[in-house]
Amino acid sequence: MIDNDRIEHLLDRYPSIADLAKRAKRRIPHFAWEYLDSGTGGETALNRNRAALDQVQLLPQFLKGDGQPDTSVELFGKRYDAPVGIAPIGMSGMLWPGSERMLAGVARERGLAYCLSTVGCETPETVGGIAGDNAWYQLYPIADKEAEADLLERAWDSGMRVLVVTVDVPLESIRERQRKSGLGQQGMSLKRLMRVAARPAWAIATARYGAPEFRALAKYVPDAGMAQLINYVRNQKLGVVGWAHLRKLRELWKGRLVVKGIMTAEDARQCVDAGADAVWVSNHGGRQFDAVPAAIDALSVIASEVGGNIPVIFDSGVRSGLDVMRAISRGADFVFAGRAFQYGPCALGQEGAWLAAEILLRDLRNNMTQMGVGSIADLRARV
């Protein structure tokens, strides 16, 4: 936690998520920035997400008196301080060393959900110990069923009660900007070494913290380096899943199960039939398929189809509290942001993790007041 005077000082310099993003770009190596910020193809889907969110307009009503909006919501029997979660980002420890721990701590302090990626740089045991019951676990289904079942058991034993099964990565996308950055190259080329040297704060922090690795998966590839772990991930066909596999995961998991990456009403209905407790509308932030519609456009259709039966969660393109309101107005019960939170640690380390949450939550409260709604339920009822 940082004190109020420090928060105000930082907000004078970085009042928006876009300001944190600019700082992050100057602070982390080029290959890390390209991994975080890029989409796939011509990045039409990435830009479409943003353009479609900007088209969502909300009509204010005034003469509401002086009141502080209540941003809290209940989901899966737990009360969160806001309908906002920190989305899973693979290899986020490469983006800034220890960022998963930083953001997990912020989630617990601010009453937000935090979702750890299968290919994150921290284990479920570590993140569960930090975030407590605010921690969720995101699973890329894998071919090794024993390892998959063990991951679920480890997540459960770590206190995680929500499992998010990501289904929209049947194959690793090309992500041209990432390839050109040299991210996938093994070893330390001269160009890569120069890019690391140009970002001394990142280099020093990485040296102190340790090189990034898939710590949760290391158990299944003992005594392996990062190159072997990357090969393991590729050989396991992470993300390849069918309906029978999903039903099997439903049998294995004792808690709430969410299916992430849903973009059609038909898939949403089948998720309900397969026993899902919620669907997560997402186009992976425009990182997988460049012809996909904007996620916010798919949200309304899916919420109309299944929203009365199970919660509908949303991500893709969220950069502000106002975007959270836009998604709720289209039928979302809960909203996650990935890049928006990750820019924080990349820009300012631990203070940045806290500041990203403060920016989003302050913007949510401010815009709810501007619109004249006193609670999330009021917002939903008004649109």
Any overview of this molecule?
By secondary structure, the protein is an alpha/beta fold. It has one domain: Alpha-Beta Barrel (TIM Barrel), CATH 3.20.20.70. It has helices at 4-13, 17-27, 30-37, 44-54, 92-95, 99-110, 124-131, 145-157, 176-181, 190-197, 200-209, 226-235, 243-252, 265-273, 295-306, 321-329, 339-371, 376-382; strands at 73-75, 78-80, 84-86, 113-116, 135-139, 162-166, 256-262, 278-281, 312-314, 334-337. The chain has an eight-stranded parallel β-barrel, surrounded by seven helices. A two-stranded antiparallel sheet has the order 1-2. α16 (321-329) links the parallel β9 and β10 (334-337). The protein starts with a helix and ends with a helix. The mean pLDDT is 94.
Q: What topology does this entry show?
A:
Layout: H1 4-13, H2 17-27, H3 30-37, H4 44-54, E1 73-75, E2 78-80, E3 84-86, H5 92-95, H6 99-110, E4 113-116, H7 124-131, E5 135-139, H8 145-157, E6 162-166, H9 176-181, H10 190-197, H11 200-209, H12 226-235, H13 243-252, E7 256-262, H14 265-273, E8 278-281, H15 295-306, E9 312-314, H16 321-329, E10 334-337, H17 339-371, H18 376-382
Parallel strand pairs: 3-4, 3-10, 4-5, 5-6, 6-7, 7-8, 8-9, 9-10
Antiparallel strand pairs: 1-2
Helix pairs in contact: 2-17, 6-7, 6-17, 14-15, 16-17
